Amino acid sequence: MSDGRSVAGFAAVDTLDAMVTEGDEVDPMVDGSDGEIPFDDVDSDDDEGLSRWWIVAIVAVLVILAAVLAAAFIKVPYFLLSPGSVRETETLIEVQGAPTYPIDGEVGFTTVTVQSATALNWALAKFDDSVTIVPEELILGKQSHDENLQANIQMMSDSKEIASAVALTQLGYKVSLTGTGAFIVEVPDDSPSKGLLTAGDTVVSVNGVSVTRSDELVATLGTYKPGDQVTLSVQPYRADGTRVSEDRVVTLGARPNDASKAYLGVSSVTRDPKYDLPVQISVDSGSVGGPSAGLAFTLGIMDVMTEGSITGGHKIATTGTIEPNGHVGEVGGVHQKTIAVRDSGAELFLVPRSEFDEAEKYAGSLRVEPVDSIDDALRILATFGGGSEVIPKNP
Predict the structure, then answer these.
(1) What is the pLDDT of residue 355?
(2) From CA 373, how far away is CA 378, in angstroms rounded?
(3) How far apart are CA 146 and CA 148, in angstroms?
(4) pLDDT at residue 5 in the model
């Protein structure tokens, strides 16, 4: 998307009009011509000079306008991230097979507007603190635009399925999960896997040990130490649906919050999650893609299925992926999401712990709280009179 901009033009000037400074007087001519100025008295050289300057000015303006218009259409290899919206989850959720209750308060999920950059809006973004300029390759990796779009649609679908399972588990229902690998959502710049893994890859084994779920990847890597080399069997995302494995050798790093534990440095979700759900749940996410609304959907489903208000009647917002074990994972665009939440009138913003510092920079008076898991989120919401204080566990 791009915003249309208008450029003002210059009004034409008739250089043949006589110009008399206010207060000047013109003496009548001896021949009684009622003050008319004889043609011979007009300085034609001055008029010609003035005309030439206007021509030069108009040409210069036209050249500038042509350059601006060209810049508005010339694509450059960047994306622009700007604040999106905060959308209520509860109104998007439909439950069949279990009671639902009226909603008091709101759990909002946050979005970021992602725009392909032109030379013009790239230059304008340099002067806008709410916009982040990101190299195209960091968003797309090795994918085309269409492949990236399809991958984000799939991640949203998986995220809703996982959110349903986690919410039901928190409410006391029995849920089982199977999958076909750990789908990579994000590879941060400082990750030890940077350049070796990319968003859209799926890890299906570690040193020959099968990985079918995201939590299995975490558990398997937990048996290694920082500095160990592991061979990952990886299936890159392909738009045609084919899955061909290739090996990637990665030297594990140390977790930022615990240097004794091995760290692959990626955010992942289970690919093709299949759950045995005792309750049928659907979430209408519209055209929004990606996995970052996982925490919001989990809380929203719980709110719909809980007689008390999970938010304590307050308007809150969240961002963060959700994993089958309830862990909250990192997301992108926290800078822009915080601005959107701040402007929405929400009272609380829950963010992944690793992105808390960035959110605080832009929060102003907005209360921001870091979470590692769904349990953390429920404990914080209990301070609002909701959360773990109102959730039943006896379906």
Answers:
(1) 95
(2) 9
(3) 5
(4) 34
Q: How far is CA 6 from CA 1, 9, 62, in A?
A: 16, 10, 14
169 touches 177 (CB < 8 A)? no
Q: What is the pLDDT of residue 118?
A: 84
Q: Which among 375, 317, 339, 313 is positioned nearest to 169, based on CA atoms?
A: 375
| Strand ranges (E), the chain | 75-88, 93-96, 106-118, 132-135, 177-178, 182-186, 202-206, 209-210, 229-235, 246-251, 253-255, 258-263, 267-270, 274-275, 280-283, 315-318, 321-322, 328-329, 348-352, 367-371
What single DSSP character describes residue 371?
E
The pLDDT, as a whole number, for residue 44 is: 52
Token reading at 284: 């209408």
pTM above 0.70, yes or no: no
Residues 6+ apart with CB under 8 A from 72: 2, 5, 118, 119, 120, 121
Cα–Cα nearest to 83, from 382, 359, 391? 359
The pair of three-digit structure tokens given for residue 183, joined into one six-digit string: 């789908």
234: left (phi over 0), alpha (psi -120 to 50) or beta: beta
268 strand-pairing partners: 184
Q: Which amino acid is at 148?
A: N
CA dihedral 241, 246, 251, 255 (to 10 degrees): 20
Between β-strands 315-318 and 348-352, what pairing exists: parallel, antiparallel or unpaired?
A: parallel
- pLDDT, one tens digit per residue, over 309-325 is 999 999 999 999 998 88
Which has the closest alpha carbon to 251: 279, 232, 276? 232
Six-digit token pair at 233?
């069997």
Distance CA 204, CA 186 (A): 17
Q: Which residues of the chain have pLDDT under 50?
A: 1-42
pLDDT, residue 329, reads 92
Query: Residue 177: its pLDDT value, please?
Result: 84
CB contact burial 85-122 (16+ within 10 A = b; e otherwise): bbbbbbebbebeeeebeebebbbbbbbbebbbbbbbbb
CA distance 107 to 90: 7
